[in-house]
Task: structure prediction
Amino acid sequence: MPRSKQKPQRAALLSSSRAGQTVRSKAEAVDYRALANFRFELRKFLAFSETAANKAGLTPQQHQALLTVKGFSSENPVSIGELAKLLFIKHHTAVELVDRMTKLGLLSRVVDDNDGRRALVKLTREGEQRLRKLSRIHSEELGAVGPTLARILKPFRRR
Result:
């Protein structure tokens, strides 16, 4: 085949395959700007949270532990093992964290009636008060950033 005839055919094939790619790319496209904005807003909120915890005399991990114990202890207190899993830390790290927080009067440890080997964790009155104050300001902050987060998450909603 002469070269002049090959070029239009190749161009037609490339443009049709590119067109298919464009359609496919749009369906599979990653919105990097939206992901970057989402990560930025998360980091901003985490920085706010860490500062608030420090002002309340807690480390961010202690604040997370208080929130986890309160949030996941509906009828039964969480065990130290469950706390470790929920905080994404190792069991021995959770034991040390609970030990420190018990000394600070924020948590109390009780033995599980059903399994004497398990230690369960409960908030003390002091732990409840500190968590209540922090949760109030965190709720206010989330209320303020909520519309921004909703706008950022809009591209990720499934139709």
The mean pLDDT is 86. Helices lie at 3-28, 32-55, 60-72, 80-87, 91-103, 125-153. The beta strands are 78-79, 107-111, 119-123.
